Known about the structure:
Blueprint: H1 2-18, E1 65-71, E2 75-81, E3 86-92, E4 98-102, E5 111-115, E6 118-123, E7 126-131, E8 137-142, E9 147-148, E10 154-156, E11 159-165, E12 171-178, E13 186-192, E14 203-210, E15 217-225, E16 230-237, E17 242-247
Antiparallel strand pairs: 1-2, 2-3, 3-4, 5-6, 6-7, 7-8, 9-11, 10-11, 11-12, 12-13, 14-15, 15-16, 16-17
Amino acid sequence: MFKMNFCIITLIIFWSSCTETINELPPCNNTDPCAEDACQPQNCIEDTTFVGLDTLWKTDMEGGNIKDMFIDDESIYVNVLTNNSFYIASYSRNTGELNWKYSNELGSISSMVLYNNKIICQRWNTVLCLSTETGNEISNHSIDIARASSTYGYLLENYYYTCMRTSDESEEYLLRSNINDLVSWEVVYTLNRSDVNGSRPNIESTNRWLNPLTQDEILIFQHRMSFPARIDLVAFNLTADSILWWHKDID
Length: 251
């Protein structure tokens, strides 16, 4: 009798404890099926993409910093700075396979542009051109008109522009060469120190504009100078070989 009463009391205790509301469990995550506290973990699908993008291919590159990158229909071109040098490489856009790799004794390339089947690079006075197909040099020329005042160039239409300055810093030149040449260079504009009240002449940020009324080719650039500091904005009519307008000492 005692055992029967004990069993009945035990059953009553268990029954009463099961009917009590459990409030201590935290609510499950109903929005993310992959979360640790997901309500429906069976619906979790792991994301194997990179920021939502499927990985087409991956390639190992020699260590360094990618300074420039260009892409055309077939290839990806990179200018990579390593610890003590540089290289330019071409990789297949579809497979990531290395097409070719180029380097030389310059140590680094400061400016790199892509034009059709050519890669144009500059390091101070040296301007070189590579074939996008093979990586072979088409040209490698050191401009001897003056010393480079900038390590950068500008690709405008069919010409590559860069700037040089005389050793005594009395004149700055804006030069250009046809994209299919890059050996013969012409001075298209000259800035004298005397024209800018003694500031060291310097030309930057060259752009091209075609006048829709006259079809004249206009170059827009800055006289961006120091010692003393001064900024001018200039429009030069390349067709007429004359200054169209010149805003001096702008803020």
